């Protein structure tokens, strides 16, 4: 483990029922101000890995460390309170009947009122769409705008680590570009460690520092994102044979 490692998973074995292991000796790490992408076929355990890091699942063996602290058995609500971890699930990640302002307030519910106002101002400056629609219900936002709101809500308490489950799911190429730009800003402006699952492999690798290709609950390949984009096996399996 290096000093800059923020999220470390060591040899994790985990599953939803006692009989079936979905993670079968999984080891990954992600560092400060780094975007790390998890790729792999449907059902290989990408979302399960995020849920294990977030604390929705407890590993049967192996460890999950956040900033060096062993949090393997810490339940999700405590992790959110006590560690600098944020989680943006794939679906139902904004409250559509609440306004943009109210969604952000939900994200900042542990903060003092003044801190909430300051943080909302900061995030509205980073992501102008939030300011434009500040008092409108989130239901009035497009898919990409909702995804940016979900990211901003998770950023309200200034997490140092962020888990993103398919942030570009269901988005048009233009909206995907905007959401990925928002993710790069989170890394570059706030130094957040981002571990994300993505189906849009080529686009995700372009903004990532490193990536893991998972297969059947284990790491099959890992490396710098730029190297993986050049890897013939990765190109064939995940990039539709396209050259980077
Ligand atoms: N709540 C659950 N209860 C039982 N089994 C589950 C549950 N969620 C997922 N699984 C199983 O765990 C395995 C891995 O699922 P997971 O969602 O982690 O895959 P994934 O790599 O994220 O796939 P996808 O790319 O399709 O989202 C699958 O076989 C799935 O059926």
TrEMBL record:
GO MF, one example: ATP binding
Keyword terms: Amino-acid transport, ATP-binding, Cell membrane, Membrane, Nucleotide-binding, Transport
Residue ranges annotated for the ABC transporter domain, each copy included: 7-241
UniProt xrefs under CDD domains: ABC_TM1139_LivF_branched (cd03224)
Matching PROSITE patterns: ABC_TRANSPORTER_2 (PS50893)
A family per Pfam: ABC_tran
Keyword Transport carried by entry: yes
Cross-referenced PANTHER family: BRANCHED-CHAIN AMINO ACID TRANSPORT ATP-BINDING PROTEIN LIVF-RELATED (PTHR43820:SF7), HIGH-AFFINITY BRANCHED-CHAIN AMINO ACID TRANSPORT ATP-BINDING PROTEIN LIVF (PTHR43820)
Family to which this protein belongs: Belongs to the ABC transporter superfamily.
Name used for this protein in its record: Branched-chain amino acid transport system ATP-binding protein
Lineage summary: Bacteria, Pseudomonadati, Pseudomonadota, Betaproteobacteria, Burkholderiales
């Amino acid at each position: 483990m290096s000093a800059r490692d923020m999220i470390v998973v060591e040899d994790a074995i985990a599953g939803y029922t006692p009989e079936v292991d979905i993670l079968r000796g999984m080891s990954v790490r992600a560092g400060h101000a780094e975007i790390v992408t998890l790729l792999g076929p449907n059902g290989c355990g990408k979302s399960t890995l995020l849920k294990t890091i977030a604390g929705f699942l407890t590993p049967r063996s192996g460890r999950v460390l956040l900033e060096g602290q062993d949090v393997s058995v810490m339940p999700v609500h405590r992790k959110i309170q006590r560690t600098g971890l944020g989680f943006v699930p794939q679906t139902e990640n904004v409250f559509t009947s609440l306004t943009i302002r109210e969604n952000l307030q939900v994200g900042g519910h542990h903060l003092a009122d003044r801190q909430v106002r300051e943080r909302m101002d900061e995030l509205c400056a980073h992501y102008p769409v939030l300011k434009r629609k500040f008092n409108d219900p989130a239901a009035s936002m497009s898919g990409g705008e909702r995804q940016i709101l979900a990211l901003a809500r998770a950023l309200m308490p200034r997490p140092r680590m962020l888990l993103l489950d398919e942030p570009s799911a269901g988005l048009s190429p233009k909206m995907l570009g905007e959401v990925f730009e928002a993710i790069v800003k989170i890394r570059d402006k706030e130094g957040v460690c981002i571990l994300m699952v993505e189906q849009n492999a080529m686009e995700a690798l372009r903004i990532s520092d490193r990536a893991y290709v998972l297969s059947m609950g284990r790491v099959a390949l890992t490396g710098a994102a730029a190297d993986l984009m050049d890897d013939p096996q990765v190109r064939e399996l995940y990039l539709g044979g396209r050259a980077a």
